[in-house]
Design goal:
This protein is mainly alpha-helical. It folds into three domains: 120 residues, Fumarase C, Chain B, domain 1; 252 residues, Fumarase C, Chain A, domain 2; 65 residues, Ribonucleotide Reductase Protein R1, domain 1 (Orthogonal Bundle). Helices cover 56% and strands 6% of the residues. The chain has 19 helices and eight strands. The strands form four sheets. Strands 1-2 form a two-stranded antiparallel ribbon. A two-stranded antiparallel ribbon has the order 3-4. A two-stranded parallel ribbon has the order 5-6. Helix 9 links the parallel strand 5 and strand 6.
Length: 480
């Protein structure tokens, strides 16, 4: 839904957290009402199409159900009405509508928007798509004037505009949710800023790191996601006036004037079509948005995988909040990390959504093809998954706890300090290759004998390297 400000999750974002580009869009976006999930009905069979004149036979009922898209493209209703408001203003400026007709259509469209907000869209109706749905609703309110609503435009133009606006808006909402996740990561890092943590490579203990550094590595990932979203927003525009593919006698000038009259602040993101063929044929913005969402999902999945592992009994380094876990219907002791597992599991679907659109687009002849209708469900699916996950993740992170006792035991592992010992020998004047070899032998010996370095005598240490001084090593190794 359209944002009405920068308040999210009970926290008002400070000025540095919201880019100037976002603030500009948020300021003007509040003009439009939000579309809620479909609920409520309006009566009547509305099987009429926007294209029926050429046909003598009724459409096959089974085929109609197959090709119908209202059940998912209703989510574009708000933007379709915005397109219609701009379009009728352009029609009026070029003399295709009287002032009375303009006022009637404008009032009807805005009323329809309020009704959709309050009652939703009945997707079970025999209506092909959201464009037709709105047309039929306007016909009931504006009467004969509604016959001119679709003058000199095509659904190809409408859906391109609608989807671009949808992607623009949601790049902002996802960005704000990412900022909440970043804030939660910073909270967790600060809460345990004095704690060390075992760092891993190849899922093997490697070196000691600060827990805050480990957590803030994920912050860096989400910061990159935020920049990608902002870059996407800054480069994407919605276009009007493309027609089916070749524009119409309604020139771009009229649309530019319409925008200036109705929504002057939106002119930064809505423009008359420069190349009408590309406007209706392009779905790069969908592919790109899905790509950004897939990268975000990858980061969510990686964090989920870490926390699942580290909260298991075998590691026991983290304790997950019960509010984000479930139990077993058979095993009473179980506390399962279901949110994190589901988030990790959804990665396949999000990746699949991206691949499905790429494959769908790969061989299409210019310009518009009906195949392109199939970009919407993958787009809506990935977006809804990622938005929900980010919201849950920001809440969960603030309740994660470190298991200090288990962490202390792990940090007593001498192997975590092997690199420090090699560096010690290098500082003493040994080459790194020989230092590496000597410490490797020492670590293998301790593992084989099941002993710690402190258990080896001073003379015993000298057998591995002449610079190994027990008193010096004690300063490097952890103190029990």
């Amino acid at each position: 839904m359209i944002l009405t400000g920068t308040h999210l999750g009970g926290r008002t974002l400070s000025t540095p957290e919201v880019s100037k580009a976002r603030k500009r869009f948020l300021a003007v976006a509040s003009v439009f009402l939000a579309v809620t999930k479909q609920a409520g009905k309006f009566g009547g069979f509305m099987g009429d199409k926007l294209w029926g004149g050429r046909f003598k036979k009724n459409i096959d009922k089974s085929f109609f159900e197959f090709e119908k898209s209202l059940q998912y493209d209703y989510k574009l209703a708000e933007f379709d009405i915005l397109h219609s408001l701009i379009h009728i203003q352009a029609l009026y400026l070029e003399g295709f509508l009287s002032k009375k007709e303009l006022d009637s259509l404008s009032k009807s469209l805005r009323t329809v928007l309020v009704e959709i907000k309050e009652k939703g869209v009945d997707v079970s109706l025999d209506i092909e798509d959201i464009h037709t749905y709105i047309q039929k609703k306007v016909e009931k309110k504006a009467g004969k004037a509604a016959e001119k609503l679709h003058t000199l435009r095509s659904r190809n133009d409408q859906v391109s505009f609608d989807e671009r606006m949808y992607c623009l808006e949601h790049s902002l909402t996802v960005g704000l949710k990412i900022e909440e996740v970043i804030a939660s990561l910073e909270f967790l890092a600060d809460k345990y800023k004095d704690y060390n943590f075992p760092g891993y490579t190849h899922t093997q203990r490697a070196q000691v790191v600060k827990f805050s550094s480990y957590i803030l590595a994920y912050r860096q990932m989400f910061l990159r996601d935020s920049r990608r979203l902002e870059n996407f927003y800054n480069r994407i525009y919605a276009f009007v006036g493309a027609g089916a593919l070749a524009g119409s006698v309604l020139l771009g000038r009229a649309y530019g004037q319409a925008l200036k009259r109705l929504f002057p602040k939106l002119r930064a993101k809505i423009k008359p079509s420069g190349n009408t063929i590309d406007t209706v044929a392009d779905r790069d913005y969908v592919v790109e948005f899905l790509s950004v969402l897939s990268i975000i999902q990858m980061h969510i999945s990686r964090l989920s995988g870490d926390f699942i592992l580290y909260s298991s009994q075998e590691f026991n380094l983290l304790e997950l909040p019960e509010e984000y876990c479930t139990g077993s219907s058979l095993m009473p002791q179980k506390k399962n990390p279901d949110f994190l597992e589901l988030a990790r599991g959804y990665t396949g679907r999000v990746y699949g959504n991206l691949i499905s659109v790429l494959v769908m687009m790969k061989g299409l002849v210019l310009s518009y093809n009906r195949d392109m209708q199939l970009d919407k469900e993958p787009l809506f699916s990935s977006l809804e998954i990622v938005e929900k996950e980010l919201g849950l993740l920001s809440g969960m992170l603030r309740k994660v706890k470190l298991n200090a006792a288990a962490l202390k035991n792990v940090l007593f592992d001498d192997a975590l300090y092997a690199t420090n010992l090699a560096e010690y020998l290098v500082r003493k004047g040994e080459s790194f290759s020989k230092a590496h070899y000597a410490v490797g032998r020492l670590m293998a010996y301790c593992r084989h004998k099941s002993i710690k370095i402190k258990d080896i005598s001073a003379s015993g240490l000298k057998k591995f390297h002449k610079f190994l001084d027990k008193e010096e090593l004690v300063k490097i190794l952890p103190k029990e």
